[in-house]
Amino acid sequence: MISKESCRNELRTAIRQLSDRCLYSAxxxxxxxxxxxxxxxxxxxPSHTRFQRGSSSIRxxxxxxxxxxxxxxxxxxxxxxxxxxxxxxxxxDCDVYMLAKAYxxxxxxxxxxxxxxxxxxxxxxxxxxxxxxxxxxxRKEEEMIELEGPLGKSDVINRELVTLEAQLSKxxxxxTIDSFGFYLYGIxxxxxxxxxxxxxxxxxxxxxxxxxxxxWSELQYLCTTADILNDLNLKNHWMKDFFLGxxxxxxxxxxxxxSKYQYLQGIFRFSNYIPAQIAKAQYSLREFEEVEVIFExxxxxxxxxxxDMDMYSNVLxxxxxxxxxxxxxxxxxxxxxxxxESCCIIGNYYSLKGLHEKSVIYFRRALKLNSKYLSAWTxxxxxxxxxxxxxxxxxxxxxxxxxxxxxxxxxxxxxxAYEMMLMPFYALHYFKKSVYLQPNDSRLWIAMAHCYExxxxxxxxxxxxxxxxxxxxxxxxxxxxxxxxxLHKELGRDEEAAxxxxxxxxxxxxxxxxxxxxxxxxxxxxxxxxxxNMLKESKVYCNRLLDYNGPERETAKSILRGMGIxxxxxxxxxxxxxxxxxxxxxxxxxxxxxxxxxxxxxxVRTFNRMKVYAIVIMSxxxxxxxxxxxxxxxxxxxxxxxxxxxxxxxxxxFNHSDSEFESSGPFEDSSxxxxxxxxxxxxxxxxxxxxxxxxxxxxxxNGSDIQRNETLIFNLMCxxxxxxxxxxxxxxxxxxxxxxxxxxxxxxxQTLERDVSTGGKINCWFRxxxxxxxxxxxxxxxxxxxxxxxxxxWLKSLPAVNAFDSFITIVKEKAHRAx
Length: 819
What we know:
InterPro entries: APC8, C2_dom, C2_domain_sf, TPR-like_helical_dom_sf, TPR_rpt. This protein is of the alpha+beta class and 819 residues long.
């Protein structure tokens, strides 16, 4: 059990002690957590209240119902109490120590160590050793620049390590070393590669003095596996929860990390550090929307914060938020442009703009400021990959791996670089390392699958396994399912390919995506279902393909025609073997109908423009079979002037006696055209109209009566992209009104304006004249005239509607072959 007041008192003492030993990073961290503890309203100062009011919005957004919002102690966990560290009381030593500390603050490290050369107090011994260590690190960086440049590799080492290790080891054996000495001793052992002993020493440091966050950070670096982490013998202090949250995150145990931080928010309710760590975990889980919200709130509360803002820039880069990333880069540049994080943010901005050379300049500048800045090495490697400079990319990624062997992004980058150099086995090696470190990232599995598919390998079975793992890891790029379908198709496994194509279609529909992958899936499934006699499913996929423009539309039409012929009970399906009998004398009239334009049509637009097309059919009032067919959806071009008043200028031609519906003729005004394609309902030339009339109970003498009941029907439709096209009006013109009109029967024809049923008008031009050469298709007499009678007998044997549908199917097939 621990109370908020107890945490507050411990942190206040720790801040003074850490600052007194020049451990400023740990002191700053402790101060941020101190202010993050909710203050008692009776004791709160105005500035403290203002800070906590700003941080409360993050707390409300990410709080859980079980979190405790009062100032009562946190129960359920038993924490140990650590005694406060005792300070040296010698006044003379204190005066010398203050002088040495002043030198240290001015970065005169050797001068500070010299001032403390005769001091034997634990505090003075630590500061002298720490000053010597930093002096050696400073000289090491200078020699690196002199020998190899700021980014080059060298064998330069810190020359003070040997002396310091011997001294601190002796102090440890004598028992004259304190927790801060253990911390410095652990750093030196880590530098020399003695990681096991370094872990033991650092555990002693944090158990004796748990408020030094720098010691916890060094210990976290040495916990490379979950087993090592679990084997640590740590006291159950509340600082251990901060350490475990950070360690779980480094080990990619993001759910455990989030659980720890959400628990800690019960005490440190207004801390900005905890939301930043939650954002890091969610960034690894690719929950970019939540990460962006958290960082926006953090910047609103702490507008001059630079820590972790490079991760925020990575999120904006991934989301391609140009304006937000530009604003962040400008803001950081004005705040502190010579920080590694600032240079990385500016580098990301130039990378997003495609200026990769300039981006590399800023990443190199970040590395000059901090040669161990991991993110800069990795991002610079990405830029070299974009620039097709594989050797430079490999060098940058290897430097990143040297700094942190658990950085999966660097291993992944090495795989990309070697794949670019056509070295697939090396690439696979590095991809496997990245997948081992981050097994839930679908991008890594997809990259490894691509490598297996490479021409030099063609290990398709292994590629399929990788794509399956990617599909199970929430493949947001929607690559895995499509590639699985294609690979199974390539291997001749049609059933498996159909399964993954269906899954891919479901995913695209849920995400409301369209594209070539959708067309490919629909086309394969339509063909596959027809091959395996699943005609209903095939018809569904074909009908969906009719909504697309391109060769897939014609393929779908061909499949539909083929299925219609196969379902027909007619004895012979080869309609080319049915020769026509001589044309009747009535087949010598041609009715031309030009749909010119519309005016003030009913407005059904969803957005700023409506695309209208017309379907013109000829119907008989006593028999509405012609109107029962569903017209093919038109594909009009955008009319730049038309909204409710479109312009078409499109001509239909009807061989009246044959009831042949045919769309033909060039477009006269393509720039202002609302193009449309009507349903082509064709009567085969080898069956005369009288034969059809006889089947449906009409004789030759009553033909004129039927003619008087025939009507031209103009159906106006508005094209919709994501649903069925909408009907916006209809115009009916009796055929006899046109046939007996002298103007229509003239050589020039007549233009008429008629009202549409739902409002508005439509302008049409009509002409009825004798057929000219070329108006009708020429047919060669055949030898199988007897089959004509066979067709008539078959039509009579079927119900009227079925006979008509089968009749239309055969006609479509003949029209397609004639084309």
